[in-house]
Amino acid sequence: MNYLAHLSLAQPSVSSKVGNMLGDFMRGVDADALSMPVRQGLDNHRLVDRFTDSHDWVLMQRRQFSPARRRFAGVALDVLFDHFLWQHWSVLYSSSREESIQRHYQDLLAGKNLMPEMMQRRMQRMVENDLLNRYGELQQVGQALDAIAGRIRFANAFAGIVEEIIPRYDELEQGFLEFYPELTRAVDKAGLEPFKEDGCGVSPSVDRGLSG
User: Fold this and answer.
1) Which of 36, 34, 4, 54 lies closest to 114 in space, CA to CA?
2) Type and span of the H or E element at 84
3) Phi, psi at residue 44, to the nearest 5°?
4) Collapsing DSSP states into helix, strand and coil, what is residue 95?
5) How much of the chain is in helix, strand and coil states, percent to nearest 5?
6) 14 and 40 in contact (C-beta within 8 Å)?
7) What is the pLDDT tens value at each position of the chain, 212 positions in all?
8) How far apart are CA 23 and CA 26, in angstroms?
9) Whole-prediction pTM value?
């Protein structure tokens, strides 16, 4: 899962959102030194990744990519899933997408002191460039994936992977709409983050509940 999904599967608190994003920035970080709420968020991030990476439907979709690009299929699907989440927000959540994204930005900025330096820089760029709204169109997904390919430090065939997504778009979209509620139920069942206001300027007014 990518940034929008991890934030949306966090609790509505600064420390939870920092922890749920921290999973991608753990180099040099001592997990045992984290505060309990941040550590619980990190554990939730890892649960989301494990559930996603081991899910039969996700594994099947990864195998559909060409051999040259299959190594990067997980990355491509993570970004694509944020696209589907953005597109179908009103189906999956009862809250306003625009208000939820703005709250995510506010909470991440409020929690910068809890982040390692590299994460601080990345989150600042996310907010300044409104990245959570940048995957609304498939063309933007392709551009994002090509940018990731350009940052890989070895020769690869990742660039252009969106060409393999386009013919399967409808199938992937329908599969996501069935998979994401399963993921949300798994997070809720695990209950790794019992909600508590954490004193970081939290306003727990935006819930994570599914629509319906």
Assistant:
1) 34
2) helix 73-87
3) -65, -40
4) coil
5) 65, 0, 30
6) no
7) 799 999 999 999 999 999 999 998 998 899 999 999 999 999 999 999 999 999 999 999 999 999 999 999 999 999 999 999 999 999 999 999 999 999 999 999 999 999 999 999 999 999 999 999 998 999 999 999 999 888 877 877 788 999 999 999 999 999 999 999 999 999 999 999 976 444 333 333 334 445 54
8) 6
9) 0.90
